[in-house]
UniProtKB/TrEMBL annotation:
Alphabetized UniProt keyword annotations: Endonuclease, Hydrolase, Nuclease, Signal
Transmembrane segment boundaries: none
UniProt GO molecular function: endonuclease activity
Residues of the signal peptide: 1-22
Record organism: Micromonospora aurantiaca (nom. illeg.)
Identification of the protein by name: Endonuclease/exonuclease/phosphatase family protein
InterPro entries (UniProt xref): Endo/exonu/phosph_ase_sf
Highest taxon, organism lineage: Bacteria
Length: 272
């Protein structure tokens, strides 16, 4: 019933109400994708980035969160988002996963750093966006890849992504708790006018052991793809609709699209 009501509300919104920097009520579309594009994993096809660009063109997201990508993939998909979401500013960011044996970044087969990325379309009023990134203190020492997080902070929106440990549920749970309990509040600071949205492959399931819901703060909204990809939002929005998007065999995960109804007031530029 909630989904049906939300669909009616979204359908009744005026044209152009979608946008990460729009004041007042509106919609926000968040697209999460795990592209398996390192070239090292069995799920690699070489077709994931072109397919992701096609999905961006079809779905017109405001925020795109990306896992298992190479650094230049962010550049390519940033161009795709700018091409279909004219106006405002498109912010792109990348964070390489660490490689414990070498002390440097984990690398794709093509030599580029491998990790996570984030794209966000901001209105011009969302001046001076800042990028925040880091490595989790909790890591599975049996896994050479060190897991990381990435956030963009702006006046009208805070967006984050991550790809948590896949070799230990307890480590993934500790990383989730660190991100939502410490990192996100630290990035937001005293900016009460804009909530946080998070998309990522958390390698945790609702109803799993451990259960992803045990690290989600009270008041957050959460949806998933029926598996380990999650999209969460802090207070100020309602996640009304979710949909898995077929990636046509280009990667081993569907894309996950969430439509959110925004109800928070956007503060004046510079008022963090």
């Amino acid at each position: 019933m909630l989904t049906a009501v939300c669909l009616l509300v979204v359908a009744g919104l005026p044209a152009g109400s979608s946008g990460a920097g729009a004041a007042g009520a509106g919609t926000l579309r968040v697209l999460q994708m795990n592209l398996c594009n390192s070239g090292r994993a069995g799920c690699y096809t070489g077709r994931a980035v072109p397919q992701a660009a096609d999905v961006i063109a079809a779905e017109l997201p405001d925020v795109v969160t990306l896992n298992e990508i190479c650094r230049d993939d962010v550049v390519t998909l940033g161009r795709a988002l700018r091409a279909v979401r004219a106006g405002g500013t498109t912010v792109s960011a990348f964070q390489a996963a660490g490689d414990r044996p070498s002390g440097g970044p984990t690398r794709c087969n093509n030599g580029e750093p491998y990790g996570i990325g984030l794209l966000a379309r901001l209105d011009a009023r969302d001046a001076r966006p800042s990028v925040h990134r880091g490595t989790y203190p909790a890591q599975d020492l049996a896994d050479p890849e060190e897991r990381v997080w990435l956030c963009v902070r702006a006046d009208g929106l805070h967006a984050c992504t991550t790809h948590l440990a896949n070799t230990s549920g307890q480590v993934a749970l500790a990383q989730c708790g660190q991100l939502l309990g410490t990192v996100v509040p630290g990035v937001r600071g005293d900016a009460v006018g804009a909530p946080t949205v998070l998309g990522g492959d958390l390698n945790l399931r609702a109803g799993g052991m451990p259960d992803v819901r045990s690290c989600v703060p009270v008041g957050y909204r959460r949806i998933d793809d029926g598996g380990r990809q999650q999209i969460l939002a802090s207070s100020g929005v309602t996640i009304c609709c979710r949909r898995s998007v077929d990636m046509r065999g280009a990667t081993d995960h569907p894309a996950l699209l969430a439509t959110m109804i925004r109800s928070w007031p956007v503060p004046p530029p510079g008022r963090y």
